Amino acid sequence: MLMKNPRSGVVRSVQATVVGFVMVVAIIAITVMVGFRLLGNPFTTETQDRSAPPVLLELRNLADFHAAQAQFEVTLDIEDDVQWMPSFIAGERVQFIAVGTVDAVVDFRRLDAQSVVVDEDTSTVTVALGAVTLQRPVLDMEESHVMNRDRGLINRIGGMFNDNPTSEARLFDEAEDKIAAAATQTELVERAQTNVTQSLTALIRALGYENVEVTFSESAGATTTAE
């Protein structure tokens, strides 16, 4: 009489269990894939906007004529060095590229009856305007970016307890100051005076006057005569 090996029964039982488990997993996987294709992903994220509608705070009348604009790019390389400490231990160095514009503006709110003098005999109109002013630089947030940032170990550890350890607010301020200073060294004011003069000349000549003179206060040599 042949004796059955009990180990072979155990092996067959294990094999059957494994095969069954694999089949169940395969069936579940196929069911999920088919369900995704037929019904879509049931775990799709849906964004809900619960923001309040915009609230109008104020309406302002603007009388500024933006006569010219200059675009600048400046690279900042600022290092906070800790004395007697190597840079990889403490300190920070940031290289930041800022791109921004500066507008040259003339305020037309100063115009009144005394600002425009008409001489019918010579067919001349003289317009007296205020000075051209350079507005605060406006940085392009998409183009401005940190090119490189090196922070010491102590700075990194300290940043773990700071809500905004790598804030660029200081860099923005520094870049705006440098761009504002650079704008004063350009011909932006002169370009604005020329553009304002040309615009007013075209308007006044359309009224039948031949000669137009535009003056700008608070600036040396700010009288421009249309040709």
Could you describe the 3D structure shown?
The chain contains four helices and nine strands, in the order H-E-E-E-E-E-E-E-H-H-H-E-E. Strands 1, 2, 5, 6 and 7 form a five-stranded antiparallel beta sheet that branches. Mean pLDDT is 77; it is low at 220-227. It has one domain (64-225). It is of the alpha+beta class and 227 residues long. The chain starts with 5 loop residues before the first helix and ends with a strand. It has helices spanning 6-39, 153-159, 169-183, 188-205; strands spanning 64-80, 92-107, 116-119, 124-129, 133-134, 138-139, 145-151, 211-216, 223-225. It is 33% helix and 28% strand.
Describe the structure concisely.
With 227 residues, the protein is an alpha+beta fold. It has 4 helices and 9 strands; from the N terminus they run αβββββββαααββ. The protein starts with 5 loop residues before the first helix and ends with a strand.
